[in-house]
Design goal:
- The protein is α+β, with helices and mostly antiparallel strands.
- Helices cover 41% and strands 23% of the residues.
- The protein contains three helices and seven strands; from the N terminus they run βααββββββα.
- The strands form two sheets. It has a four-stranded antiparallel sheet with strand order 1-2-3-4, covered by helices on one side. It has a three-stranded antiparallel sheet with strand order 5-6-7, with helices on one face.
- The protein is elongated and about 65 Å long.
- The chain starts with 23 loop residues before the first strand and ends with a helix.
């Protein structure tokens, strides 16, 4: 198995080179709609948490926790959106190829989990890879599992 880059950058993304006899079964890329929905949920949860913390601390301006949480999540969301949504994972009949061109042989995939809007691929060696912000994480999981079963 090729070494995967821990924190890939969009500019490091490569179009995968396919081996002879290898064919593309699917491509997985983050969904803008899913990305926005997840960040709205994070902002709402962060707002409730921060207001609660400020009330517990006796702050008379607890409402500022809501403003701060929404602003923080919005800034983070805007900052990493292009990169997170630009990553493309390619599933072939032999391997799952990450955004940087590194691949995981299908025989090395032990299981695929779903975590909210992400599909998590776990290898036999215990390495874990996240395909984030999938429009349908369960479908992504099913496609990878079907390819592994071939």
């Amino acid at each position: 198995m090729d070494d995967m880059i821990l924190e890939p950058r969009l500019e490091d993304q490569k179009t995968p080179d396919l081996n002879p006899g290898e064919e593309v079964l699917a491509r997985f890329q983050g969904s803008l709609r899913t990305y926005v929905k997840e960040h709205v949920l994070l902002a709402a949860l962060g707002s409730v948490l921060m207001v609660g913390v400020l009330i517990y601390m006796g702050n008379p301006h607890a409402w500022t926790g809501m403003i701060g949480a929404v602003a923080a999540i919005a800034v983070r969301g805007l900052y990493v959106a292009r990169e997170q949504l630009g990553f493309v994972w390619t599933l072939t009949n032999h391997r799952l190829i990450g955004p940087t061109g590194s691949g995981i042989l299908l025989g090395n995939i032990e299981k695929v989990n779903t975590l909210f809007t992400a599909a998590q691929v776990v290898t036999i060696a215990g390495d874990k890879y996240m395909l984030k912000y999938q429009a349908d994480a369960k479908d992504t999981k099913a496609q990878i599992e079907r390819a592994c079963a071939r």
